[in-house]
Design goal:
244 residues; globular; 7 helices; 7 strands; Rossmann fold
Length: 244
C-alpha cells in the first residue's frame, strides 16, 4: 500500500554540532571497512533484515547522457521501497535525484529530502517526499544526510556528487563512521574515479588499505546485498584496517 505523501515544509532541524549523534560516534579505534570488488550478481539472495533502515543516495541533478543511468536510478528506487528501506537524498525533483525519489514513492516507499534554504528558494526543492528537512547551509545538509542514514549509494553524478562522495569517504577514513559505501558503476561511469584513487595510492597520498573504504558494483541488483554485507562486517569487526 502506497504511503501518503505529506511534506512538512516547516521541519527545520537543529544545527548539526559536535554533540550530534553522528559526530559522537566512537573515534580512535580500528575502522571496519570494505574492499573494492564487483561481486557476482545475487538474483537468488533472500531478503535480509539488518540494521539498514535508511540509505542515502548521492546522484546527479541532471540525467546524464545515457538512458542506462536513468533506468538504474529508477530500479534502485523500486528496490529500496520493496525492501522497506527509506531513501535519504538531497532533495529536488530534477535529474537522477528526481528519478530515484519518484521511483521510491511509486513503489510505496518512504523518502526524506534534505535541502538548504537557498536551493529551496531557487525552486530546486520542488519534490515529492514523505518528509522534508530544510537546513541553513550545504554543510548542515550533508551532515544531516549522513547522520540519519545507515549506508550510502553513489549513482552517476557531477561535481556535487563527487563532493559528497569524497566527504563521506574521508569521514570514514577518519573513523567518524563505519557505514557501508557502494558505488553503482553503471556503464563503467566510476571506472575513472577508481583509477584516480588507485593513482593517489601509487603516488603515496593515500594508503593502499583505504581502497577498502568502499565497494563498486556493476548491477543494481547487487547494491542492497553489498550494503547488507558491509553493514554485517562493520558490526562484527571483519575486514578491519590497520590504523597503526
Amino acid at each position: 500500500m502506497r504511503h501518503a505523501v505529506s511534506c512538512n515544509s516547516n521541519a527545520v532541524p537543529d544545527r548539526i554540532t559536535e554533540n550530534s549523534a553522528f559526530t559522537r560516534l566512537v573515534r580512535g579505534g580500528t575502522l571496519p571497512a570494505l574492499s573494492i570488488r564487483r561481486p557476482v550478481r545475487q538474483k537468488d539472495i533472500e531478503p535480509v533484515h539488518s540494521s539498514i533502515g535508511s540509505v542515502c543516495v548521492y546522484c546527479g541533478s541532471s540525467f546524464g547522457g545515457r538512458p542506462a543511468f536513468t533506468e538504474a536510478a529508477r530500479h534502485l528506487g523500486t528496490l529500496l521501497a520493496q525492501s522497506d528501506i527509506r531513501l535519504v537524498y538531497g532533495g529536488g525533483a530534477v535529474g537522477l535525484m528526481g528519478v530515484v525519489s519518484q521511483a521510491v514513492l511509486d513503489a510505496g516507499g518512504r523518502v526524506t529530502g534534505i535541502i538548504p534554504h537557498f536551493l529551496d528558494q531557487a525552486e530546486v526543492g520542488k519534490m515529492n517526499v514523505t518528509e522534508l528537512i530544510r537546513t541553513e547551509t550545504m554543510h548542515d545538509r550533508k551532515a544531516r544526510m549522513a547522520e540519519i542514514s545507515d549506508g550510502f549509494v553513489v549513482l552517476p553524478g557531477g561535481l556535487g556528487t563527487l563532493d559528497e562522495t569524497f566527504e563521506i569517504l574521508t569521514w570514514k577514513q577518519l573513523n567518524l563512521h563505519t557505514k557501508p559505501i557502494v558505488l553503482l558503476n553503471s556503464e563503467g561511469y566510476w571506472d575513472h574515479f577508481v583509477h584516480l584513487v588507485e593513482h593517489q595510492v601509487r603516488e603515496g597520498f593515500v594508503r593502499e588499505q583505504y581502497l577498502r573504504l568502499f565497494r563498486v558494483v556493476d548491477h543494481v541488483d547487487d547494491v542492497l546485498p553489498t550494503l547488507m554485507e558491509g553493514a554485517a562486517q562493520a558490526r562484527t569487526g571483519q575486514d578491519r584496517l590497520d590504523r597503526a
